[in-house]
Design goal:
With 402 residues, the chain is mainly α. It has helices spanning 9-12, 18-22, 25-34, 52-60, 101-109, 115-136, 144-148, 152-161, 168-179, 185-208, 214-219, 230-261, 263-271, 276-286, 317-320, 355-372, and strands spanning 37-40, 46-49, 65-66, 141-143, 222-223, 226-227, 292-296, 300-302, 305-307, 312-315, 376-377, 385-387, 393-396, 398-401. It folds into two domains: 1-66 and 291-341, Uridine Diphospho-n-acetylenolpyruvylglucosamine Reductase, domain 2, CATH 3.30.43; 94-290 and 344-401, Cytochrome P450 (Cytochrome p450, Orthogonal Bundle), CATH 1.10.630.10. Helices cover 47% and strands 11% of the residues. Strand 12 (385-387) and strand 13 (393-396) form a beta hairpin. Helix 12 (230-261) runs parallel beside helix 16 (355-372). The structure holds protoporphyrin IX containing FE.
């Protein structure tokens, strides 16, 4: 777990500190004013920009800020390079590669998350959400994070990958091991290996028994006259699962938490469902779940900070989205916010490839819940818990309703 409590957020921040995980907003406000690019030696050392302009500038400067290691945690000290057949996932293209690999691997994924594909998945997502609400609506209580948010994206992504939906809990466990418990090296490595071994088997099977899923298509795709390597297919499949699950479930969970704890917003959204498109963008802005890392490629002075080749910089999209220089009433959720150029999905060449899917899932999840449960709240004394690090979102949101 984390070490000493933090007393100096500018020089010694800790993204796993319970105060930061639970409520980072005042910390970012303070840093933005007093030390816009913070630094720490914890967790392998990193820099933490907090303004919109800085996060945007670094996202676009791919020459000096590489995606060769996008994890907010350093790799395990004794991590060995394993081949895919032994559960190794050497690369996660396109997220963990720079051009030129980035360009063609991203192109392979995009059609799977186009508006047309997402429209097809919307019908399935709506049925799924209805079924989940049907399952607990009569109980008068549920955990909006664990019983609802957590159940949705993993099932949709399983369908895209052509892997059994019944494996959902297992996938969720592996993804949590890799992202949420990343500070526990053993757990992270074990989760990644189990996920790698499972997907490796799936990749081999698709070579002789292709289906109509993403893995099958990749296995039979050529690049520059050659079939894609196992390493690339496995990496893209693993990224789809890792990027598509925890992120969206966290965004849905934060939205449910917000609506459970902000009666006026909840009632307004029920009364004015036409606000849903701007409300979804606003909830994504205010509770952006994802922080990514970059590796500095050459010594550079950035905003007066001496960054050295090999240093890590955390792209703090969530803090950028609360920057009052860009967003009026930045710390409030304004359901009908008209201008909202938020960075929840990143910026530049690595901007989220699954944002159409993510937006649809968040919208449908809120719509289907509110249709059957328009009034709900967190009861007195109930404990809401949050996970943080690479992806921030609630893990338990106990709510009661009529
Ligand atoms: C609310 C949910 C989501 C959020 C907040 C989110 C956020 C992000 C962010 C911030 C990035 C940029 C990474 C970087 O700059 O290093 C990213 C990239 C990516 N996301 Fe998402 N994401 C979400 C859902 C999804 C879903 C559902 C998928 C579907 C598989 C997905 C797939 C990807 C992929 C493949 C990339 C890498 C794109 C590239 O490197 O070119 N994401 N996402």
């Amino acid at each position: 777990m984390t070490g000493n409590p933090v007393t100096d957020w500018a020089r010694d921040y800790d993204i796993f500190d319970p105060d930061y995980v639970g409520d980072p907003f005042l910390i970012w406000d303070d840093l933005r004013t007093n030390c816009p690019v913070a630094h720490t030696e914890r967790w392998g050392g990193s820099w933490l920009p907090t303004t919109y302009a800085d996060v945007m500038a670094i996202s676009h400067d791919i020459a000096r800020f590489s995606s060769s290691d996008v994890g907010v945690m350093p790799p395990a000290a004794d991590a060995e390079e394993k081949p895919p057949s032994a559960g190794g996932i050497p690369v996660l293209p396109p997220i963990s590669v720079d051009p030129p690999e980035h360009t063609w691997t991203r192109r392979l994924m995009l059609p799977w998350f186009s508006h047309r594909r997402v429209e097809e998945l919307e019908v399935i997502t709506r049925d799924l959400c209805r079924g989940l609400v049907d399952g607990f609506v009569a109980d008068g209580r549920a955990d909006a994070a664990a019983d609802y948010a957590q159940q949705i994206p993993v099932r949709i992504i399983s369908m895209v990958l052509g892997v059994p939906e019944e494996m959902s809990d297992t996938f969720t466990g592996w993804v949590r091991d890799v992202l949420e418990f990343a500070h526990d090296e053993r757990r992270r490595e074990a989760g990644a290996e189990a996920l790698g071994l499972y997907l490796y088997e799936q990749v081999q099977r698709r070579k002789t028994e292709p289906g109509d899923d993403l893995i099958s298509e990749l296995v039979h795709t050529e690049h520059e006259g050659e079939l894609l390597s196992d390493e690339i297919v496995l990496g893209i499949a693993a990224l789809t699962l890792i990027a598509g699950v925890d992120t969206t479930w966290s965004a849905i969970g934060s939205s449910m938490w917000h609506l459970a704890t902000h009666e006026a917003d909840r009632r307004r959204l029920v009364a004015e469902p036409e606000l849903m498109p701007t409300a979804v963008e606003e909830l994504l802005r205010a509770y952006s779940p994802v922080t990514m890392a970059r590796v500095v490629t050459e010594d550079v002075e950035f905003q007066g900070c001496p960054m050295h080749a090999g240093d890590k910089v955390l792209l703090n999209f969530p803090a950028a989205n609360r920057d009052p220089a860009v967003f009026e009433r930045a710390d409030e959720v304004v359901l009908d916010r008209q201008i909202n150029r938020h960075l929840a999905f990143g910026a530049g060449i690595h901007r989220c490839a699954g944002s159409n899917l993510a937006r649809m899932e968040v919208r449908v999840a809120i719509e289907e819940w509110l249709r059957q449960i328009p009034e709900f709240s967190v009861p007195e004394g109930a404990e809401v818990t949050w996970a943080g690090g690479q992806v921030r979102g609630p893990r338990s949101v106990p709510v009661v309703f009529g």
